[in-house]
Write a structure and sequence with these properties.
With 272 residues, this protein is mostly beta strands. Helices cover 11% and strands 58% of the residues. The chain has a single domain, classed as Outer membrane protein transport protein (OMPP1/FadL/TodX) (Porin, Beta Barrel), CATH 2.40.160.60.
Length: 272
């Protein structure tokens, strides 16, 4: 009896966050440590967060990320992503898995990005989304797309826009349930070479505007310190990154005042 009550309470508590996961939240510990900023990461996670920034990867790159949301294995997330620069543009892919046996979401995407002139790039991604619910409820498959742009407005300022699933693809005929479209717009500022400051506004179908802000500071070459905050839900975020030869190791955590910590880590490898 006690176990059933705990499971039911957990389902009620987590229902909002399951929706948030399907809303294509940014991945990667760099993003997490800076308040969930997704428009400007400029690394392998751009294949998922903002395809336009894949053009900032000068080498073939592969990454793996893991997030233990609120320290619950049932809401864990794993993601693998890669980018490949070519003469005609940058190719990318990602595979993202969230959940456990009774409820899980699998998202796969292919992406392409290209620069146009100096400081402007655009990208697009095609996505396959599978939602599976146990106990005989079955599986639902959907297809959608996403797109993003990034422009370097000056030597110290840049701006980005990203949209995921602008057509509100239907998830289920019951109650006209849709996969939420998500719109992001933001700025990034480089006051000095060692410091990056970003702010971003995110609007989804089911939630009010989420304002996110974060910064990254490199006190010495190869070491990065990060912090940030988001407004909806209110999260306090911290993280760091270390570069060693062809590897980048990044660790971050996000803190919710009621639900607690969501630690995560990611590893990036750049090929010669």
């Amino acid at each position: 009896m006690r176990k059933g009550v705990l499971i039911l309470a957990g389902c009620v508590l987590l229902s909002g966050f399951i929706i948030a996961q399907r809303e294509h939240s940014p991945v990667g510990s760099r993003s997490a440590g800076m308040g969930g900023i997704g428009l400007y990461t400029g690394d392998v996670w751009s294949a998922y967060n903002n395809q336009a920034l894949m053009t900032h990867c000068e080498k073939a790159t592969l990454g793996f990320a893991y997030k233990n949301q609120y320290l619950l294995k049932e809401t864990a997330m794993q993601c693998v992503a890669g980018v490949l620069p070519t003469h005609s543009g940058t190719l990318g892919f990602y595979v993202n898995y969230f959940g456990y046996s009774s409820y899980n979401e699998l998202t796969m995407g292919l992406a392409y990005a290209k620069t146009f002139g100096t400081g402007f790039s655009a990208g697009i991604g095609l996505n396959w989304l599978r939602t599976a619910i146990g106990e005989g409820y079955g599986t639902k498959n959907n297809f959608t797309f996403e797109a993003g742009i990034f422009a370097r407005l000056s030597g110290q300022l840049g701006a980005g826009i990203h949209v995921f699933n602008p057509l509100n693809v239907k998830l289920s005929s019951y109650n006209d349930e849709c996969i939420p479209s998500v719109y992001n717009v933001g700025l990034v500022y480089f006051p000095i070479k060692q410091l990056t400051i970003s702010c971003e506004a995110e609007k989804s179908l089911y939630h009010k505007i989420n304002i996110k802000a974060g910064m990254e500071y490199a006190p010495v070459k190869g070491i990065f310190l990060r912090t940030g905050i988001s407004s909806n839900p209110t999260l306090f975020c911290f993280g760091f990154g270390i570069t060693y030869k062809q590897f980048i190791l990044e660790i971050a955590t996000q803190y919710h005042q009621v639900l607690g910590y969501s630690p995560q880590a990611s590893v990036i490898y750049s090929f010669n």
